[in-house]
Amino acid sequence: MLVAITGVVATGCEESRAPAAAHVAAAAPVAEATPDADAVPAVNSAPDQTAAASGASTTASVQEPVAAPVKTAAPAGMQDITFDTIKFPLEKNEPFERSKLTPAIEALHGRNVKLRGYILPSFQQSGITQFVLVRDNMQCCFGPGAALYDCVVVDMKPGKTTDFTVRPVAVEGTFELRDFKGPDGKYLAIYHLDGEAVRF
Questions:
Q1: Which residue from 119, 122, 131, 196 has the least number of CB within 10 angstroms?
Q2: Distance CA 182, CA 200 (A)
């Protein structure tokens, strides 16, 4: 499978791909900014009314601060993630090491997820079974700033296909940490989705 998609991954996740950019520039509009990760809900800091309601002393009491909720293991069912969810600290041109992945990213391995992004353009327009899902359709994967966490290799499950579109899509499937390397041993991608469905 790696042999079949190496060319697509190499064009999608490495820097300096001017020919590929030119091929797509006319068809693929610049994407809107990726939404930020889920915001933490505001904590209700209203004064405690228990003492007044029970007729006890009305002396003002200071409510203890409530800690922000901590994200634990993914709940049963499908988990909605973004490219910000799978981002990790990695400087430009810095070699990748598995130890750089955060515990939260490691915990996604084997989970059913929904990830929004763009299908990396290729010569195939319909009946697509393999493609690269990227953060946006121009900036991260067709010029400076490309990063390993900005692309995910998708293999649709047997019998499942999708069609190319320049619009954003949501891919549902099983998330995996899987290395894809070029002939020179350089990492082309580190994320994989066993695709169940592509929602337009």
A1: 196
A2: 31
- Distances in Å between the Cα of 56 and the Cα atoms of 52, 53, 96 are 6, 8, 61
Structure tokens at 164: 């190319």
In single-letter form, the type of residue at position 90 comes to L
Which residue stretches of the chain have pLDDT < 50?
1-3, 15-75, 139-140, 142-145
Contact 157, 176 (CB under 8 A): no
Lookup: tokens for 200:
């337009």
Of the candidates 158, 151, 143, the one whose C-alpha atom is nearest the C-alpha of residue 180 is 151
Which residue type is seen at 139? Q
The answer to whether 124 and 164 are in contact (CB under 8 A) is yes
Name the β-bridge partners of 155. Answer: 130, 194
What is the C-alpha separation between 120 and 117, in angstroms, rounded? Answer: 9
Q: Which amino acid is at 28?
A: A
The tens digit of pLDDT for each residue in 57-110 reads 444 444 444 444 334 444 458 999 999 999 999 988 889 999 999 999 999 999
